[in-house]
Amino acid sequence: MINKRVIFIVLIGIIFSTSLAFAQIPSPLKDVKVTGLVMLDSTTGIYTYNYSIFNPPINDGKIFHFEIDITKPLNSQELNSAGLVIRRGVKAQGGMIIRSFEEEVARIKEVLQKPVIPVGAQPPFGQPFPGWITAITVMGTVSWGGSEQSLILPNQTFGGFILTSYGLPGIRDVKIEPDIDIDNLPEQYWENIELTKQLEDSLIYQTKTLGPTAPPADFKPVSFIDYIISMKHEAFSLGWITNQGIEQSLDAKLENAKKKIEQGNKNAAKNILNAFINEVEAQKDKHLTSEAYGLLKYNVEYLIGRL
User: Fold this and answer.
1) At residue 97, does pLDDT exceed 60?
2) What is the predicted pLDDT for the residue at 194?
């Protein structure tokens, strides 16, 4: 007859080993792809930024949160906020929780660490409650957080994350976080908030995308074209410009336009910059990603309009 005590010990061992199997530290996210598109409504002057996120199959974590920096650059223009609203998420009884940009910022005004660019924001439409929620954070970011039912799984793309702003496209920092099952972490994390926070930070994936920013308050065409040249170089290093010959051709046009501006020949500079935009249009979705296209097209158009 089998000893009941032996059976009990075996069962305890199975339960303990099973709990150890679940007590795993998640792997850091890798190679998450954020795709950003931007379009300008010339009637309102509002840019709409549309983002999608791809969680590659190499990851074992589910994405539940990401945020984009919207801090206001030093000595930049004060931008309009008319018509910009934060659609925070779906209510339990249906409908959306909606705040104006001013109401959203007033909610955190006392603890907001840096001034922010005025934006509107919304989560993907069509998500059942609780779905994704959106907010402006005290760190000066726009944040989207997903519920357990709406996490972005490995090998899944999820889109429809929207920003609206009067701000020109710039290169912005992004942070993406995996979901962590706190209850199933190893014992040393139990009730240790500081250690758990360190773990969460270590799993974050950081990258860059297109996002709204403000031009300088004291606008100087030569300084602004230097800024565009700098962004073009960074776009190439980020893989947004995929052909070195195209990058060099665009660079030559910007440098030539800069010389014409310095010489006071604004008409010649405009002609060169219009040729630059024509090349950007021709290379869209070929050797320029949506990020490079929006970044270069709209900033150069803004420059032309102020020459």
Assistant:
1) yes
2) 79
pLDDT in tens, 77-92: 999 999 999 998 766 6
Residue pair 61/203 in contact by the 8 Å Cβ criterion: yes
Which residue, among 113, 120, 111, 109, has the nearest Cα to 142 in the 3D structure? Answer: 120
Residue 109 has pLDDT above 60, yes or no: yes
Residues 6+ apart with CB under 8 A from 188: 195
pLDDT over 50 at 9, yes or no: no
pLDDT greater than 70 at residue 173: yes
Angle between helices 266-283 and 290-304 (to 10 degrees): 160
Distance of alpha carbon 203 from alpha carbon 157, whole angstroms: 20
State residue 12's pLDDT score: 39
DSSP per residue over the chain, as a string? ---HHHHHHHHHHHHHHHHHHH--PPPPP-S-EEEEEEEEETTTTEEEEEEEEEE-TT--SPEEEEEEE-BPPTTBPPPP-TT-EEEEEE-TTSSEEEEEHHHHHHHHTTT--S-B---EEEPPTTPPSS-EEEEE-TTSEEEEEE-GGG-B-TTEEEEEEEEEESSEEEEEEEEEEE---GGGS-GGGTT-HHHHHHHHHHH-EEEEEEEEE--BSS--HHHHHHHHHHHHHHHHHTTSB--HHHHHHHHHHHHHHHHHHHTT-HHHHHHHHHHHHHHHHHHBTTTB-HHHHHHHHHHHHHHHTT-
Reported as a pLDDT band with limits 50, 70 and 90, residue 216 is very high
Query: How many other C-beta atoms can be found within 10 angstroms of the C-beta atom of residue 85?
Result: 19
Q: Quote the pTM value.
A: 0.88
